[in-house]
């Protein structure tokens, strides 16, 4: 057995409170279930990853807990963390429907490999850390005054880009309250598929009047024709999130949107995310790295891919009342993989 081989794995389920209720068009939550995963080599070096399952993709804390033992056994059986292609295939064989669980193992193994080499993860891929975009932070749905207050708090904390969740019976008034609270902020809007195409097209004029720079998933995931209609008329770029889960979905939306949203938790890990980004770029689309409400154990893995994308929405850990991991800096929204000495730079507190 080589010194670099994976010899031990562990997983821990963590129930995390959010820093206040977080509401989108599909519902509201005050807590989230994540899983932390560690992989250890024979020299005692540890890689860390995390899973943040989403009910929308038919995953939850129990399904991830059930899948992880087999996935971690596969990682130990592969042994060498440098065999990423082999490991990805084994993970998909063991849990084809558990993308978040696969993502946790993927990030942990990539973290370990980079730590073994004594370099930050982005360097493993030859990326330029200076190209990482500023991340947005999210303003969840509330009454107009509450959304304005939340936006003001984020802006006062130094974050220049805000993503505003919409999908209510009074969206325009809510967005106006945000804009009034933060007149100089860059605003993006995410309807999480709540609008119909005609409704989204009607909204385009006031979205433009309020200087919205990006519109994410305005219509239901399966309405690609509706996405195309909105994009054709939109003065700002339109992004597909729920409509584009993996690289295989990119061709179907390539003529319907301007941007594809890539999330480790929906595509299944770092190698699948890189593949989805490359596929989107091959179709002439921009890309955004997004996230669920998750710890920095997984957010950090995505942050090291950020030099590849035009947009970032990696604020999930900022929505938690307390993050059980540390080492990821998002000061002023700036992703800073260049400050990492080795791996993803994140560890347990």
Q: CATH class of the largest domain, anyone? A: Alpha Beta
Strand order of the largest sheet: 4-5-6-7-8-9-10-11
Number of strands: 13
Give the H and E element order: EEEHHHHEHEHEHEHEHEHHEHEEE
Distance between the termini: 30 Å
The gross shape turns out to be globular
Q: What structural class should be given to the helix and strand makeup?
A: alpha/beta
Q: Average pLDDT value? A: 97
Name the CATH architecture of the largest domain. Answer: Alpha-Beta Barrel
* Fourth CATH level, the homologous superfamily of the largest domain: Enolase-like C-terminal domain
Describe the protein's topology.
Blueprint (H helix, E strand, L loop, with lengths): L5 E19 L2 E15 L4 E6 L9 H18 L5 H11 L4 H19 L3 H4 L12 E3 L4 H13 L4 E5 L5 H11 L4 E5 L6 H13 L2 E5 L7 H10 L4 E3 L9 H4 L5 E4 L1 H4 L2 H13 L3 E4 L6 H8 L7 E2 L12 E2 L20 E2 L1
Parallel strand pairs: 4-5, 5-6, 6-7, 7-8, 8-9, 9-10, 10-11
Antiparallel strand pairs: 1-2, 2-3, 12-13
Helix pairs in contact: 1-2, 1-3, 2-3, 5-6, 7-8
Give structural notes.
Helices cover 37% and strands 21% of the residues. Strand 5, helix 6 (171-181) and strand 6 form a beta-alpha-beta unit. It has 12 helices and 13 strands. The chain is α/β, with parallel strands linked by helices and 349 residues long. An 8-stranded parallel β-sheet has the order 4-5-6-7-8-9-10-11. The protein has a 3-stranded antiparallel β-sheet with strand order 1-2-3. Strands 12-13 form a two-stranded antiparallel ribbon. It has 2 domains: 6-122, Enolase-like, domain 1 (2-Layer Sandwich), CATH 3.30.390; 123-348, Alpha-Beta Barrel (TIM Barrel), CATH 3.20.20.120. The radius of gyration is 19 Å and the shape is globular. Helix 2 (84-94) packs antiparallel against helix 3.
